[in-house]
Amino acid sequence: LRSGTKQLRYLESADLKLEKITVKPFVSVENDDMPMLRNVIVELKRLIPIKLFKKKCFHDFLLDYSVEQRRILRNIYKQIEESHMVGSAIDEIVVVLDKSKVYWALDELENATQIIRVGIDCIRFVLDIFSESWIVYSGDFAFFPAPWSTSSGDVDVSTVRWMAEGILCSIVNRPGIAMNDLKLKYSFALQPRFFMDLIKLLERFGCIVLKQIRSIPANLNSPFLDEGILHLFFKIIFLIFYCFLQLFYNFSKRLF
Question: Where, by residue number, does the polypeptide cross the bilayer (predicted)?
Fold first, then answer.
């Protein structure tokens, strides 16, 4: 507890006030590949209209798909159903399918509110009948709460910026830090699922790069395993902070 409190105090005092830094590029060229803040943050906001719950039973839902698609959807739905309220992670959905087909089926089921995206250790999926233990209600909507969620289910952008800034500075201080090491460092404040959400946000905006490197551990492992370790690298120091500032320079404006 003392160690966690000490790290929390360090995190509170590690605010570099990046939003106060003004960057004036010499060439006025916009990078069209960079996603807008609105498009990035909206992925962290998942409001589900309550009226969509149980709008269509699973058997009626399958009627809109071909015979082959029904087989895929039924197999995945059955495995998620068997996990009850614990939910199934993508890696736990054991089906002889391409990953692209699994992601397609999960998107179709989620868009139809047949399954709900939840999870703490990782992203998990549960049936709507088992979602009561995971979601909260606000007016006509339901949502899975995150550290940056407001009481109405909106995203507090300043909280996202503060947490993402802390993670980014940790990567700058230790280039090539292993993913698990960084995840452990912030485990006192961020659950693994939400930590990965921020990592993906920084990666998508070009602030960091994830590389899988095979390193030789000090302890002897099985010779049949050939697994790499994910390491986090930052780009050129000026570039990463320029990308970060472009992302959050107007975070005080109301986005939603």
Answer: 229-249
